[in-house]
Amino acid sequence: MTSLPARAGRRCHNVLNPLHSTVYFSPDYAKELAAIGVDSRATTFIGRAAPLGRVGPGVVTAAFYNYKYDFIASLVPAMWDTVAPEDVVAARVRAADATLRRLLGEDTLNSDEMAEAARLALRATEACTRHARPLYAAHADQPVPDAPHLAYWHAATLLREHRGDGHLTALLGAGLDPMEALVSHTATGKGMAPKWVLATRGWTQEEWDAAVRRLQERELVGADGELTEAGEALRTDVELATDRLDAAPYEHLGAADVARLTELGKGFIGTALTAGAFPSDLFGKA
Hints:
Blueprint: H1 8-21, H2 27-35, H3 43-49, H4 57-64, H5 69-73, H6 85-104, H7 106-109, H8 112-125, H9 134-140, H10 148-173, H11 178-187, H12 194-201, H13 205-217, H14 229-245, H15 247-253, H16 255-274
């Protein structure tokens, strides 16, 4: 097996994951969930949680790491009395189909490149593992859609959740609690802006500020709210640990095919971003 260039798996993930994530910010997703009776406050997590089945707030909070338990508990498990998890799963697939058709266009969806990307991404998932990866394992039990663009989206989902489960292990090992993980990620400039975190995760501004103070006490964040040298090193270590835990799918695919999948994925997400896939103020420190 050809060894991969440094961070090749992360670069591939960084173009696959955003296309998967477009669904959660899509009007098509909100419309599909509303049509089956999902509370609008739950849209940011319920689509990913539904493959876990009729679980309670403790399981969802554990699997998601950075949502506030009280917020999840205000919606789950009561929501399962209104809508079945399998109906949420089906609604998410319909939303993915509508979203990708709108953002990418029919020519891209029906292209040889999309079919090739689906084959490569699905092959990468062959090396994903279920142990200690609850969200990945739940999504891996879902069937692979027939349409190439949905097969590609499904594979991107599996690769996202596989890396994400490993990332939570890395955060735990780094001693970052849920709020500290969010604050320090936002401080890198790559995470969601604070207003989006607070609006979607159930935390308050007071809890955000308290996490900032804790990070300052650990000398990971400075008085200006920016990461210190130690803070930057910690976040780098977290990403490197995540890379190690997520290496198998990309090593299985091999260097040449990882490079090709990255190239194809870059083209798809570039088109989606141009089409306005995400709110303009979603990312950043402000």
